[in-house]
UniProtKB/TrEMBL annotation:
This is Prephenate dehydrogenase. The lineage of its organism: unclassified sequences, metagenomes, ecological metagenomes. Residues 111-183 form the Prephenate dehydrogenase dimerization domain. It comes from mine drainage metagenome.
Length: 290
């Protein structure tokens, strides 16, 4: 039971974490809407990013001081416009200053932190943040739509097994945050993500085992009957479909249907659907397949 719970935690945490990050950065990105024109500050951050990318950490440290001076100088005028948005950028600013000035230098960590700071400067409409999160957020928050009393009972009944799993996950997240802050090796981030991917691969397919499939991303128009026509064409190809998922971005006239098939059937179905006029993105193949 403990191993199962740990696997589930490692599967869910990276996906949920980054869906959450997407929401936070999208929300933070609305800063310029409430803080006025910050284009001059964006220019400084872009300069620092360029120097870090070129490996000039000394130059980056000097230029980031210009950011610090300009940001602090503008605090009195900018902060009252929207204290919440200002606080978001200020926290990202502190992280960027520490990362760029770190000794020894950590360019990879600095790039990540600066990218987060720059994201906070972009102009987006705040109500769009949930829409931008899209299908990924919906996938990892389905449990939130279920009965809380039901899940309370499940969690309470399994508290003894959950406690060490959640404690382990909490410690992993602490290491992850330290890596994001430049206080730990960047490898912590990759290890965390790799474990999530490994955990996902442990989920058995509909026939059991760890069978891997090729995914054909088929582009469909958002018009009545398109999904039915796709399924009919796939059925006419006489190829067994192992799994299907659909992604659709709000406001867009198209969607993408992900069709999972056995590797030995992928090329045949791809050719058949192409012949029926379907637009298909490059297939997603498991890493161990040619």
């Amino acid at each position: 039971m403990k191993q199962i719970l740990l696997s589930v935690a490692l599967i869910i945490a990276p996906v949920a974490l980054f869906s959450g990050v997407h929401m936070v950065t999208a929300s933070t990105a609305a800063v310029t809407t409430g803080l006025g024109d910050l284009s001059s500050l964006k220019t400084i951050v872009a300069d620092v990013q360029a120097k870090v990318a070129a490996g000039d950490m000394q130059g980056a440290a000097a230029r980031v001081t210009d950011w610090e001076t300009a940001w602090d100088h503008g605090q009195t005028a900018i902060r009252p416009l929207n204290p919440t948005y200002w606080g978001n950028i200020d926290a990202a600013s502190d992280a960027a200053l520490s990362s760029v000035r770190a000794k020894p230098a950590t360019p990879d960590a600095a790039k990540a932190v600066l990218a987060s700071l720059m994201a906070g400067e972009l102009t987006l409409n705040p109500p769009m943040s949930a829409q931008l999160a899209g299908q990924g957020l919906r996938d990892v928050t389905r449990i939130a739509a279920s009965d809380s009393q039901l899940w309370f009972g499940i969690l309470r009944a399994n508290a003894a097994a959950l406690h060490p799993v959640l404690t382990s996950l909490y410690r992993r997240l602490e290491s992850f945050i330290e890596a994001l802050d430049g206080k730990a090796e960047v490898s912590e981030i990759f290890d965390f993500l790799d474990q999530g991917r490994t955990g996902r691969q442990l989920i058995p397919g509909k026939h059991g085992g760890k069978r891997q499939y090729v995914v054909l991303p088929v582009l469909i128009d958002d018009t009545p009957g398109q999904l039915k026509r796709l399924f009919n064409d796939a059925g006419d190809a006489n190829i067994n479909i192992e799994d299907v998922s659909m992604e659709h971005s709000p406001g867009q006239p198209t969607g993408v249907v992900q069709i999972s098939v056995a590797p030995e059937s992928a090329d045949e179905l791809l050719a058949y659907l192409h012949g029926r006029g379907w637009r298909i993105y490059p297939p997603h193949k498991p890493a161990n397949l040619p």
